[in-house]
Each structure stands twice: as structure tokens, then as C-alpha cells.
């Protein structure tokens, strides 16, 4: 694995990287928990309710984020939705891992809400916790700069096997993101750009695994009716046939 270099303080403006400039500008803020007023809920219901609300609000955020990425809105509208429906869980997991560094054994879902192993066990989401903590560790070892995190997150949006109406348009969109990443690492990681990019891509299979774990958990929660789930969250689960 490679380590972050001194050159990572280079700005997007310095490298004339318009894609990264745009991604820096449209990055959503970290959420805060909306307090649950009911004191009659069990602890696992309360925590799952908070997590459900955070996932739903973060979904709203990434839809707005995606629309601001240069080139995304040029895709066919149906293709935009298919990409979001097929990659949202990977995007949210990658964002969660980034927020949770350095790895202290806690997943930072919001500024004021973290999930540790004990709480995960109480809420019956140990699989999610264990896999996400492993991803935190992997992301930490990569030593990514903030800009590399932003651009990898945009790349995840394009890393889908879903059938599209205009697949060539996706390839062009993906190429603009890959070119921006290549340009960035060639400036801030001179002499190790290719190896650096390849190592970054090694995180993608773990995120694909996380997709299945996230969907399985929340589909189960939805079926049991244990906590309220907002319409958008349910629609994104159902769209991929995981219900």
C-alpha cells in the first residue's frame, strides 16, 4: 500500500483540475441526528430509527450531489436514476468509511452519532458493522487525500453493471472522472501514479460486497416493520429487487 505524500496539499486550482474543483464544491455536509422524542422505544428500535432516517437523508444528499457532477446531467434521465439506484449503498458506505477515520472501532454515521460493536450487536446489524469497519481500515491504509476521496466517490457512481439506454454515454462520463484522477495523482504522487491508482481501485470489490449487506439489512427491517422508513429509502431498496 502507498502512503500519503507531502504533495497532497496541492489544490485543485493548482492542478487545473475542473472535475475535482466541482466535486469539492458539491460535497454534502455531514449530517446530524434528529432527536427521537419517544421514550417508549426499545434501544434497538431507537437506534435503527435514527439510522434509517440518516440513510434516507443522505440519499437525498447524494442525488443532489450527483446532479452537480460535470457530465452526469448529460446522461439520459432513466440512466441517471438506474446508476443511483444501483450504486447508492456503495457510495454511502465509502462516505461512512471516510468519516470514520481514524479507525477507533466506531462508525461515524453523523456528527453526533457513532455505532460501535456493542450497539451493532444490540441492533442486529453486526454484519454491517464488521464489514464497514474492515473498509475503514482499508481506506485508512490507502492514505487518500480529500480530493482523491471525492473523485473515487464519483467513480463509484459510474461503477455499475446495470443495463442502460445509452451505455456509451456512461463510458464517456466515466472516462472524464478517470482522467481527472489520473491527472491528479500524476501531480501529487509523482513516480507512483499508476500504482497509486491501481491500489485505490482495490477498494471497489469490498464496497460491492457492502452493497449486498446494506440492502439485506434494510430490506429485513422494512419487512418486519420494526421502524419507520421514508418513501425514498424504500423506493431505492425496491428498485433493485431486494425487497
From TrEMBL:
Gene3D superfamilies (alphabetical): Retinoid X Receptor
Against PROSITE patterns, the record matches this protein to:
NR_LBD
What transmembrane ranges does the database entry give?
A: none
Name any one GO molecular function: DNA binding
Annotated keywords: DNA-binding, Nucleus, Receptor, Transcription, Transcription regulation
> Where does the NR LBD domain lie?
15-240
Pfam families given for it? Answer: Hormone_recep
Under InterPro entries, the record lists: NHR-like_dom_sf, Nucl_hrmn_rcpt_lig-bd, Nuclear_hormone_rcpt_NR3, Nuclear_hrmn_rcpt
Can you say what this protein is called?
Answer: NR LBD domain-containing protein
The species this protein belongs to is Microctonus hyperodae (Parasitoid wasp)
Amino acid at each position: 500500500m502507498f502512503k500519503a505524500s507531502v504533495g497532497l496539499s496541492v489544490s485543485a486550482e493548482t492542478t487545473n483540475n475542473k472535475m475535482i474543483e466541482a466535486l469539492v464544491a458539491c460535497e454534502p455536509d455531514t449530517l446530524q441526528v434528529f432527536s427521537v422524542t419517544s421514550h417508549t422505544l426499545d434501544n434497538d428500535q431507537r437506534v435503527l430509527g435514527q439510522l434509517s432516517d440518516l440513510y434516507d437523508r443522505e440519499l437525498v444528499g447524494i442525488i443532489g450531489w450527483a446532479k452537480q457532477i460535470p457530465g452526469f446531467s448529460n446522461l439520459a434521465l432513466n440512466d441517471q436514476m438506474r446508476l443511483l439506484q444501483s450504486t447508492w449503498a456503495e457510495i454511502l458506505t465509502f462516505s461512512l468509511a471516510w468519516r470514520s477515520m481514524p479507525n477507533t472501532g466506531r462508525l461515524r454515521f453523523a456528527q453526533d452519532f457513532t455505532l460501535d460493536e456493542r450497539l451493532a450487536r444490540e441492533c442486529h446489524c453486526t454484519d454491517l458493522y464488521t464489514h464497514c469497519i474492515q473498509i475503514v481500515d482499508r481506506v485508512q491504509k490507502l492514505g487518500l487525500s480529500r480530493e482523491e476521496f471525492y473523485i473515487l466517490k464519483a467513480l463509484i457512481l459510474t461503477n455499475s453493471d446495470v443495463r442502460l439506454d445509452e451505455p456509451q454515454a456512461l463510458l464517456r462520463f466515466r472516462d472524464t472522472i478517470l482522467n481527472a484522477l489520473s491527472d491528479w495523482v500524476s501531480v501529487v504522487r509523482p513516480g507512483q501514479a499508476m500504482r497509486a491508482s491501481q491500489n485505490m481501485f482495490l477498494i471497489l470489490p469490498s464496497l460491492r460486497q457492502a452493497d449486498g449487506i446494506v440492502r439485506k439489512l434494510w430490506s429485513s427491517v422494512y419487512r418486519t416493520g420494526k421502524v419507520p422508513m421514508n418513501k425514498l429509502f424504500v423506493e431505492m431498496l425496491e428498485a433493485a429487487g431486494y425487497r
